# Entry
Amino acid sequence: MKLKGRVALITGGAGGLGQAIALRLASEGASVVVCDINEAALETTRAMIEALGAQCLALRCDVSSSAQVNAMFGEIDARFGTLHILVNNAALVPDKPNDDERRKRHYALVTQPVPRQSLEITRNMDDAEWKRFWAVNVDGVFYCTRAALQRMEPQGYGKIINIASIAGISSMGAHSPHYSAAKGAVIAFTRAVAYEVAGANVQVNAICPGGVQTPAFDRYLAQQTPEQISVFKQVMPLGRLGKGEEYAALVSHLASDECYLVGSIINAGGGTYI
# Structure
C-alpha cells in the first residue's frame, strides 16, 4: 500500500495499458481517477477498481480539448481536493488498415532480403492525419500536465509519468512518422518540464514501451498469418510483447516515494531498441 493517501489520474485509463496501470495503482492504495472517451469501458474499469476497495472517479474526457481537461480537473478537485500522481497515457496509435500495410512494409525491409527502397509514407500523408495525432498525443499531454502542475507545485509534491514510446527514440516507428514525431515531442517535453519543476518536489519521467499486449493487439495478431507474426516477433529480442502488468509495475515505482528519478526516459521495449 505504498500509494495510500495519494490521488492518481490515468488518462486513457478505460482499457489496455491504461486500465492495467489504474488497477495497479489502486491495488497499492491510491484513489484513482480514470478518463477516457469510451464511456462504457470507463464504467467497467470503475467497477474493477472499486472491487479492489479503492475509490474511483471515472470521467469522459477528450484530452485534446483544453476546456474538457480543465472541467475534468475541476471535478477531481471537488471529489478529492487535489492530485498527487498524473499518468499521461491517452494517445492515438496507428491502428488503421493503411497503418497495418505501412507496418508490414517496414518490417519486411528490416527482416527480409528485399531491395533498399523508400517506404513512401511522409510524402503521402495529409494534414488531417498529422494534426489528429498531434492533438491527442502532444496537446493532451500539455493540457493535463499544466493543470496537474497548478495543483502539484503549490503543495510541493507530485509525480508525473508520461507514456511515450520507443518510436520516439528509435527508427522502429518509421512506418508511422506522425506517431514517432508526437512521442519524440513528449520525450523532449518530459526532460524540459522535469528540470523546470524538480525544485518544487515534482518528479517528471517518461516510459518508452515497445509493443504492449492488449486485447486490441491480440485481435490484430489473430488476423495475421504465422509468417507475418514471425516477422513481427523478429524485431523483439524477447520474442513477445510486454504485458500491461509489467509496464504498470514500472509506473507504480515512478509514482512512489521510493523513486529518485528525474527526467529519465526509460526504454522499456524488451530489447527492441538497444
User: Anything to note?
Assistant: The longest strand covers residues 202-209.
